[in-house]
Amino acid sequence: MHRKRALGSNAWLLAMVFVLGSTVAASACSCAPSLDVDQELHRADAVFAGRVVALELVLSSDPAIGVSLEQLRATLSVHSAWKGDVGEQTVVYTVFTCCVCGFRFEIGEEYLVYAIEQDGELHTSICTRTRLLGVASDDLEKLGHLTPAIWAAPENTEPDPASE
Fold it and tell me: Is residue 91 packed enough to be buried (19+ CB in 10 Å), middle (13-18) or exposed (0-12)?
């Protein structure tokens, strides 16, 4: 009889692990099948390449679902843009809260970013083709047929004496 209780509590423990494990898996990120470059370019509101110069955690709440989420606010120094209203310094947000598909930016790294505009802000996630620039050669090859807007510091800011 003592053995039956031990077995019964082990079965209960195993059932709880299964239920809790299923709950965690159900809340994990799930993306639709990956789009190709042309499809992602069409879907995105902004496509650009740049280096992350600042990261900040910000708390935002979504009244529609009644949940507060941590978001990562990434500021990028943009050197090329193929689509969207993107400036030399552009901010993009991604969810930082566990299991919600947020993209993990790192300061100093360069990325190719595909972003969607929501409420006047650019957002990205791991469900887009956003990736490190060093592994985005397929994307860059496809984007190559477009002329990117490229920002560069002016070579000479002094007035040309010959033009006076």
Answer: middle
